[in-house]
TrEMBL record:
Domain Peptidase M28: 114-306
A GO MF label: aminopeptidase activity
Gene3D superfamilies associated with the record: Zn peptidases
UniProt keywords, alphabetically: Aminopeptidase, Hydrolase, Membrane, Protease, Transmembrane, Transmembrane helix
GO biological process: proteolysis
Species: Desulfosporosinus metallidurans
This protein's record includes keyword NAD: no
Membrane-traversing stretches: 335-356, 376-396, 416-435, 447-468, 474-501, 522-543
Taxonomic placement: Bacteria, Bacillati, Bacillota, Clostridia, Eubacteriales
Name the record gives this protein: Aminopeptidase Y (Arg, Lys, Leu preference)
Length: 769
């Protein structure tokens, strides 16, 4: 059957008409808000709780005495408001597997506790509200992250305890969230969730509001509709985040905060946080009380109270829902395309693509057989063009990294460097494309279209078979390329990969942006290959339009050649004016007392980048990334006695190692790094209880790029004064013991507007057995 142009347009119209109703069907419905509580949320009372946690308790890393002190305070406030309170202590072994960014296997024992408070209602149906109360590290006061969330929940506890209510409320304050949602994962594996209707979590209070609805699973669409409707009614600026393709989706942590653990168990849940790229104080000493504002606490508190009074979920306990939907946000309006709609859209797009390809093949058969040699030549030239453009797009960063001797030159303004990359890539493409017409390439524009559509069809098909929602960005791109067959237009070329752009925008405005940029720079060749392949369909689509309108395109490209070269040069030069650090995004510097054995200690001041010249001059050091200041005539914070019993077998020997530790004060972390030139296996029920290890996991040395085998074991408090491990190995074993302490009174105080200083004390000693 020969298809006319008219019939293809009709088919496209039908496809569009079938897709649109799914969007319309899922439009956010407005839900009337209930009358306001007579009690009302008090931001000042919530702020008082934040103030106590930050100023009286201070940094609260998992397992620390200060975290326990915070737990006692939270329990006291809840008891005062009539809640039934219990603590849920846990001791969990967490395994950090070897990855691209982490070469060593790390096994950690995390000790902490959850605080669970319940306020029974007339019905057992339960709504859970959560917030973690630990802070990121020894030096982070954790005002915004997440004393602010705790303050909101404690104020909600006061209000809810004084109002009549049908449902049962449960407030959970999670420990060890910063170690990878350890507290919430422990709770959901131990709790009976059969009476839970839904859950929401408050992690970092601020605006614009981030409504996060995805971990390894996604929240039910009905919950999203109600939650976003209330935000819209209250005129609260918000951003709906689903991370449906990005890093957290399939990671071991599986989400941004503790609500993700509930989604994993089939409980409708979402999180409230701060939208966009984390501010420079995130997980840093600058996360102090002044970062928390009464206005933002009032907004989030009122909104949270409205959620509790308004949201209604029909089902009770764990259940299964459609997870592969796609949410779209246009200002404050949210539309949801269900997975059925995505499948229909994908099927029709594949059908349309197939029909157009058949039409194209028949047309070529009538003239002559398709010249596959030309297709492969086009593909090769386009790949080379993509590699050149992608390789040169980062030339601005490379030049200024060398001149300024700063690796993370993009730290303060990553969006500027990203836009510069795009501008340089575009300028490079225009300049090279203006010469392409001189190459002996095919002049048939539809050959370029055919090559591009076949590539996208293959990628879209593989993605659709993997997971249908992941395929959507590529299927939309494929549809635009289909339309381009009839209407060659630069607009379609630019619109096609829109959702690919959008995914990167979401990534660069998330907590993963730093690790993403680091991965790009550390594995440049890998990302060069990936993005060069992604550029091929884009360039093919552009060349299809250019050759379709050859005379106009040739003149335009010729006229743009010199301006493109000039703008590219100006972009490269202008990047030198962008500061790497600002007062909002300062340079991270560690000031650490370091002790080794019985030797005198030193104060080690170091950073991943070159230390500022002013700091080096103040400390009378030499320029570089680190400097040392000696500590004389003082004793180290730990002394170690070792005892070893060796048992020899035929090919193996077993080392029973005992380490007796004497502390001047208890360290926060104790680490054992075991290293050998030969494979080895570790057993310990003392330092890390073997019974708590995941099933089938053995503590074995992992092969490193150096050729040695190693493993890192660590635990949070309470620490033991005697550590016993058994190691089976044929060779010499190196054991490094390391203790990390907080440093509340550092010997050297760093006062610099563009520096954020971490103060620590470390003891390290190496032993060979």
């Amino acid at each position: 059957m020969k298809l006319s142009k008219t019939s293809m347009i009709v088919l496209m119209t039908i496809l569009s008409l079938m897709a649109i109703p799914w969007l319309v069907y899922s439009k956010t419905k407005s839900t009337p808000l209930p009358s306001q509580s007579t009690m009302g949320f008090s931001a000042s009372k919530a702020y008082d709780h934040v103030k106590y946690l930050v100023q009286k308790v201070g940094p609260r890393p998992a397992g620390s005495k200060s975290e326990l002190k915070a737990a006692q305070y939270i329990s006291y406030v809840l008891n005062q408001n009539g809640w039934k309170v219990r603590q849920q202590p846990f001791s969990k072994v967490v395994v950090r597997e070897v990855s691209v960014m982490q070469r060593e296997q790390q096994v950690e024992l995390i000790n902490s506790q959850n605080i669970i408070a319940e306020l029974p209602g007339k019905r057992p149906d339960t709504i859970v509200i959560g917030a973690h109360y630990d802070s990121a590290n020894l030096n982070a006061p954790g005002a915004v992250d997440n004393a602010s969330g705790v303050g909101v929940l404690l104020e909600l506890a006061r209000i809810l305890s004084q109002e009549p209510h049908e449902e049962t409320y449960q407030l959970i304050f999670f420990g060890a969230e910063e170690y990878g949602l350890v507290g919430s994962q422990y709770y959901t594996t131990q709790a009976d969730l059969s009476a839970v209707r839904w859950m929401f979590n408050v992690d970092m209070v601020g605006t614009p509001l981030e409504i996060d609805v995805a971990g390894k699973k996604s929240a039910p669409p009905e919950l999203i509709r109600q939650v976003t409707s209330i935000a819209k009614e209250r005129q609260i600026p918000f951003h709906l985040s689903r991370d449906f393709i990005l890093m957290t989706r399939e990671s071991s942590q599986g989400g941004a905060s503790d609500f993700s653990s509930f989604l994993d168990k089939g409980i409708p849940a979402f999180g409230l946080g701060i939208s966009g790229r984390p501010a420079g104080y995130f997980h840093r000493p600058e996360d102090r009380l002044e970062r928390v504002t009464l206005e933002e606490m009032q907004n989030v508190g009122d909104y949270s109270l409205s959620l509790l009074k308004t949201v209604r979920m029909e089902k009770l306990g764990p259940y299964v829902w459609d997870e592969l939907y796609l949410p779209f946000q246009i200002e404050k309006n949210v539309f949801i395309l269900p997975s059925v709609g995505i499948r229909i859209f994908t099927f029709l797009t594949f059908l349309l693509t197939g029909l157009i390809i058949i039409k194209f093949m028949r047309k070529n058969t009538e003239k002559q057989r398709l010249n596959w040699k030309k297709v492969f030549v086009i593909l090769g030239v386009t790949l080379m063009l993509s590699l050149i453009v992608m390789g040169l797009s980062g030339i601005g960063e490379m030049i200024w990294q060398g001149v300024k001797q700063v690796q993370t030159i993009y730290f303060a303004y990553p969006s500027l460097f990203l836009m510069a990359r795009i501008g340089i890539a575009l300028g490079t493409f225009i300049f090279i494309a203006s010469w392409v017409y001189k190459l002996p390439l095919a002049r048939d524009p539809q050959l370029y279209w055919f090559t591009g559509v076949m590539l996208l069809l293959g990628v879209s098909l593989v993605m659709a078979l993997t997971r249908i929602d992941l395929a959507f960005p590529f299927v939309v791109w494929l549809l635009c390329l289909d339309l381009q067959f009839f209407f060659p237009s630069i607009i379609l070329v630019l619109i096609g990969p829109y959702f690919i752009y959008r995914l990167h925008f979401e990534l660069l405005n998330s907590q993963q942006w730093v690790s993403y940029y680091e991965a790009i720079h550390n594995y440049f060749l890998v990302f060069l290959g990936i993005y060069s392949l992604l550029l091929i369909p884009f360039f093919l689509a552009g060349l299809h339009v250019a050759i379709s309108k050859a005379q106009f395109s040739r003149k335009l490209l010729y006229r743009l050649r010199k301006p493109a070269l000039l703008v590219t040069g100006l972009l490269v030069l202008s990047l030198g004016l962008v500061p790497a650090y600002t007062t909002d995004y300062p340079q991270s510097v560690t000031v650490r007392e370091e002790w080794s054995g019985s030797s005198d200690g030193v104060v080690h001041v170091f950073s991943d980048e070159r230390l500022p010249r002013q700091l080096v001059n103040d400390l009378s050091g030499q320029e570089g990334k680190s400097l040392y200041v000696p500590i004389l005539n003082e004793k180290p914070p730990i002394s170690v006695e070792t005892f070893v019993l060796e048992k020899k077998g035929n090919l193996e020997r077993t080392l029973d190692i005992s380490l007796k530790l004497n502390y001047t004060s208890e360290p926060y972390l104790i680490r054992l790094k075991l290293d050998s030139a030969h494979p080895f296996e570790v057993k310990t029920d003392d330092f890390l209880p073997m019974s708590k290890l995941p099933r089938k996991l053995q503590l074995k040395g992992v092969l490193q790029p150096s050729g040695n085998y190693s493993i890192l074991l660590q635990r949070t408090p309470p620490q033991k004064t005697m550590i016993q491990i058994s190691v089976e190995t044929p060779g010499i074993m190196t054991c490094s013991l390391e203790g990390i302490f907080a440093d509340p009174s550092p010997r050297i105080q760093v006062q610099h507007a563009l520096i954020s200083a971490d103060y620590q004390i470390r003891f390290k000693e190496d032993f060979q057995f």
